[in-house]
Amino acid sequence: MPSRLFKKPALAAGFIALLGVCSQALAHNPMCECTAVEDGQIRCTGGFSDGSGAPGVTLDVIGYDETILVPGKLGADSTLTFKRPDSEFYVLFDAGPGHIVEIDQADIEAP
């Protein structure tokens, strides 16, 4: 037996559109920032656009030849500090499918 709510196609389309808007409002995007700090070190901080942190999330430093130079995970404070590699690299913040951020070495600013 069809539901009374969806007897009118326009009402059904409006309801479906509203569901799409609500799901987008609940989404949170990954964020990661890396900054050069003292003694040739780099500190990366990860989190999400809803303000939540990302402790335990994978953050790897990868060479341009795709070798992992520094395997890592963010600490309890959602940061990871590592020695700047001598070779060219990028940072990969990987919180799962659709939640990946890449930061090239050229985009890492000095303090």
Can you describe this structure?
This is Secreted protein. Residues 1-27 form the signal peptide. This protein is an alpha+beta fold and 111 residues long. The protein has a single domain (29-107), classed as Immunoglobulin-like (Sandwich), CATH 2.60.40. 16% of the residues lie in helices and 37% in strands. It starts with 8 loop residues before the first helix and ends in a 7-residue tail after the last strand. The model is unreliable at 1-6 and 10-25 (pLDDT under 50).
In short:
By secondary structure, this protein is α+β, with helices and mostly antiparallel strands.
Topology of this protein?
Layout (H helix, E strand, L loop, with lengths): L8 H18 L3 E8 L3 E8 L9 E6 L4 E3 L8 E5 L5 E6 L5 E5 L7
Antiparallel strand pairs: 1-2, 2-5, 3-4, 3-6, 6-7
Helical run tally? 1
Strand arrangement, major sheet: 4-3-6-7
Number of domains: 1
Instruction: Tell me the distance between the termini.
Output: 66 Å
List the uncertain runs.
1-6, 10-25
The arrangement of helices and strands along the chain is: HEEEEEEE
Shape: globular
The residue-averaged pLDDT reads 84
The largest sheet is: 4 strands, antiparallel
Question: What is the highest CATH level, the class?
Answer: Mainly Beta
Radius of gyration: 21 Å
Helix/strand-derived category reads alpha+beta
Which CATH architecture is right? Sandwich
Number of beta-strand segments = 7
The CATH topology is given as Immunoglobulin-like
Q: Strand percentage, roughly?
A: 35-45%
Q: What share of the residues lie within helices?
A: 10-25%
